[in-house]
Design a protein that fits this description.
Length: 90
């Protein structure tokens, strides 16, 4: 019952696996194409420019940090507070 499968069965199994594999690849490409087309349509629409201009610009505040020599935690360079250790330099 669980012997060596025939060569024909292995060929059929390989064909089925290939069809499924390439079918999923095709569907993925089709979805990517539709997403790209939808993005292009959104960018071309007149109200999308107004929406982008009206969207608030996010500012990324970057702050310098230093390593606490006692505990190894990163603390802000300005306004650093004590980490609670006895020999904390902050």
């Amino acid at each position: 019952m669980f012997g060596i499968p025939s060569f024909q069965k292995l060929i059929v199994l390989a064909v089925i696996l290939a069809v499924v594999w390439y079918g999923f690849k095709f569907l993925g490409r089709l979805q990517d194409t539709r997403r790209k087309e939808a993005r292009k349509r959104d960018l071309r629409s007149p109200d999308s420019k107004a929406r982008r201009e009206a969207a608030p610009q996010e500012s990324l505040d970057v702050e310098e940090t230093v390593v606490c020599s006692q505990c190894g935690a990163y603390v802000p360079a300005r306004g650093a507070a004590s980490c609670g250790k006895a020999r904390c330099p902050y």
